[in-house]
Amino acid sequence: MASLASHDYSLVNKIATIIDLTDVERGALSLLPTYITNVRADQDIVRQGDRPTRSCVVLEGLACTSTVTSQGRRQISAFHVRGDIPDLQSLHLSTLDFSISTMTPCVLGFMPHEGLRILCENHPRLGGVLWRETLVYAAIFREWLVNVGQREAFSRTAHLLCETIVRMQAVGLADGYSCSFPVTQTELADATGMTSVHVNRVLQQLRKAGLINWKGADLEVLDWPGLRQAAGFDPTYLHLEPMKLAA
Amino acid sequence: MASLASHDYSLVNKIATIIDLTDVERGALSLLPTYITNVRADQDIVRQGDRPTRSCVVLEGLACTSTVTSQGRRQISAFHVRGDIPDLQSLHLSTLDFSISTMTPCVLGFMPHEGLRILCENHPRLGGVLWRETLVYAAIFREWLVNVGQREAFSRTAHLLCETIVRMQAVGLADGYSCSFPVTQTELADATGMTSVHVNRVLQQLRKAGLINWKGADLEVLDWPGLRQAAGFDPTYLHLEPMKLAA
DNA sequence: CGGCGATTTGATAATGGTCAAGTGCCGTGG
DNA sequence: CCACGGCACTTGACCATTATCAAATCGCCG
CA B136 to CA B238: how far, in whole Å? Predict the structure, then answer.
């Protein structure tokens, strides 16, 4: 059964960090991703204007959500890592107002909306976890808005790196304060509302300040308290505290 | 019964624009807001860091969601009008990462999370509508991020005004392309990531360009196509198309 | 009438954008 | 194995948008 592929574990594992799964729920979840596929880097998974009939899980790789304005300018509004479900919104809002694209080669799982709806009805707790997932993204969008609207380039960039490290740690993709973060400076610019030229200069400042080390895809935070302070980073908005603790 | 107060109609009416309500659902909804209250202008309803046990509906007035950074800078991330439920997020994420405040005197309804959870379990369609509400906000946050990250002051301000007019129209608070929008230029600045001085100058440009007329609380769009074009405004992200049409 | 907040204006400064060119890195193909 | 091409990164010079600071005016409410 395709859904028993080891890839699925990323989704189940993630949900298991949020609530304690019963065997029945685990069984219902294992039936979920009905179609698993590999996608090359820099491919659109869904596009602005689409009306998808399924949602995707990132099982491996790095993806992002982005929007293009009528002037042709692009804003990246979130990065997606293992276990993330970036377009759950389409379950309740028919027309997509953003695109999702791969940034590296990815393994993706696709889940038909019909199956998701039935899952939510039969397993309200699981429905709640999916709802929660969309709320965490809403919180991330809001924090990025704060970041772009209120922080200057240096702390803005630092903030994005703080978020990245913490989220990577949360899904087990970080080694201490190091992780692989294979984005170009142009992509970073699209995420921070800056130009790639200025991103370049800010990264040099961050390096000179001894806060980070970033070579190729390898991001290393040399001074976590320093970076965190430079960013004014407060991880509350990531809501990493599991529901089981919250209850 | 308090919940039958005429104020509630704003919530029921709004939901009725999204799905066709059955009598049973209508009955379940009428039991919802258990506590209705009046709040003065410029009061916090909930604060960053709170762990609310209820969510509020705006029954009358104007409210906003805002976040304050560690540097003391404030970002407004959404406005809330009649029928909106601004802090549904607390139903699934225990700690609030934003504040909600009134901008004018408001009538608010409070709905205990327990009652909401039961409602969602017993009436999945209503649960879906509430989920949808949170997704629309997520889309608004994302669009504001695009706005602040990618548009210059002039179109950014125009965009915010376009959104305002369209949302006001959607809840019947606009008269053609005019509506009451009682925010100060300082508040507009906090919403657009600009300074109030610059907001002032941009508003003068918008007036000189014959696009708007704004005196006190009364916002009037004189040239809707012009404003829309200046903003690069595409209302898709507001998802005003009801679910009943979408299905 | 007085006072306070909101709006407006002016002068100046700075953050970050634009443009342009050069360097380094890596995979492809001769 | 080396040359080439392309893309990402880097650098410099210059410019524009927008912030900052300060003060004046307007308008409303007590």
Answer: 6
Looking at the partner chain, which of B73, B94, B246 has a beta carbon nearest the beta carbon of A150? Answer: B73
Distance CA B81, CA B200 (A): 24
Identity of the residue in B124, B139, B145 whose CB atom sits nearest the CB atom of A97: B139
Q: What pTM did the predictor assign?
A: 0.95
Question: Which three-class secondary structure string do you get for A190-206?
Answer: HHHCCCHHHHHHHHHHH
The answer to whether A145 contacts B144, with C-beta atoms less than 8 Å apart, is yes
Structure token pair of residue B247 = 């299905």
How many angstroms is C1' of D17 away from CA of B15?
Answer: 43
Which nucleotide shows the minimum CA-to-C1' distance to residue B215?
A: C7
Rounded Cα gap, residues B84 and B215, in angstroms: 26
- Chain C: nucleotides below 7 Å from protein CB are 5-11, 15-20, 26
CA angle (A76, A78, A83) in 5-degree steps:
140
Distances (CA, A) of B123 to B35, B93, B115: 21, 21, 12
B56-75: per-residue pLDDT in tens? 999 999 999 999 999 999 99
C-alpha to C-alpha distance for A32 and A7, rounded to whole angstroms = 12
CB-CB under 8 Å, A243 with B139: no
Q: How do residues B145-181 score in pLDDT, each as one tens digit?
A: 999 999 999 999 999 999 999 999 999 999 999 999 9
Asked if strand D contacts A195 at the CB level, meaning under 7 A, the answer is no
Longest dimension (CA), chain B: 55
pLDDT for B1: 42
Query: Which residue out of B53, B113, B140, B150 would a mutagenesis test of the A interface target, given it has the greatest number of A Cβ atoms within 10 Å?
Result: B150
Shortest distance, CA A146 to any CA of chain B (angstroms): 6
Three-state SS string across chain A, please?
CHHHCHHHHHHHHHHHHHCCCCHHHHHHHHCCCCEEEEECCCCEEECCCCCCCEEEEEEECCEEEEEECCCCCEEEEEEECCCCCCCHHHHCCCCCCCEEEECCCEEEEEEEHHHHHHHHHHCHHHHHHHHHHHHHHHHHHHHHHHHHHHCCHHHHHHHHHHHHHHHHHHCCCEECCEEECCCCHHHHHHHHCCCHHHHHHHHHHHHHCCCEEEECCEEEECCHHHHHHHHCCCHHHHCCCCHHHHC
Sequence-distant (6+) residues with CB within 8 A of B218 are: B178, B179, B180, B181
Selecting from A69, A77, A146 the residue whose C-beta is nearest the C-beta of B69 gives: A146
